[in-house]
Amino acid sequence: MKAVMSGDPLAYEEEERDWGVFLRRFRWRLRRAYAGLRYGKGALGDSPVIFGNSFPKSGTHLLAQIVLAFPRFGLAVDRGMGPVLTFVRQTGRERSSREILGDLKKLYPGDVAFGHITAAADIMRELNQKRVAHYFMVRDPRDVVVSHAFYIGDKATHNVHHEYYKALPTLDDRIRVSILGRQDWEGNFPDIGSRYRSYLGWLECPDVLELRFEDFITCREEFLGSMVDYAKSKGFLLRVTKEHAVEILGAAVDPQRSYTFRRGRVGDWREHFTEEHKRLFKEVTGDLLVRLGYEQDSTW
Question: Which of 43, 162, 182, 295 has a CA positioned 20 to 30 A from the CA of residue 7?
Fold first, then answer.
């Protein structure tokens, strides 16, 4: 997969020269070798994989910045091979389970990686067979819709839907498409309810730590502390105090280095949803907001 030099770490192409793959694998092996020299040969073998997973537009880049900082204070190595994704941005092609499983099988103990992967049964089995500190980030789906509408139309020039969104006359139209999907498109871009539900299985896994984007915004220190505690419970070897680790993680977060970052506000949907948006959203999501704990009923 050839990296796209757009500043977006989640953007990549389906094809990549073997030379680029070789260089990244070489750097990864050097990092693992250095960790062996520093901490002892075979030390990484007892470390968990650190994996940051999320529903798209739920703070993925901020989560990536956090998990990629773990090697700064403990026994972990940045894999550096790009994100593990369910869909190819440039074409909209849905990657097969075989492709995704191939990526996951390449994760060695102590590796750090991130991406968007759905809770398909075979993928869940693969991760359950590994020792993985698996973080799954969620966000209010209404804010996800608004963020998606802005991002695809304004920034995501690599995305297969960019030109379509860009041609829509108003932001209201973009939000409508982000809610309903593109039924006229030959690829797979369903409504927000269907898209979200394919990830919900992760919330039913006791070994997966659920993270909420809203908690990152409102109580960041506790949010980061829970991440450190969870990694330690999975066997992550901490080389500093928990307090220092939280400081390092906090310092690693820089929204301005995130290509997709716009506002990062909680409840931004209230400024943009029309009554029609609310009606359409409720039709396609059912009790999703109640299930996620963002509402008590459908009277919002």
Answer: 182
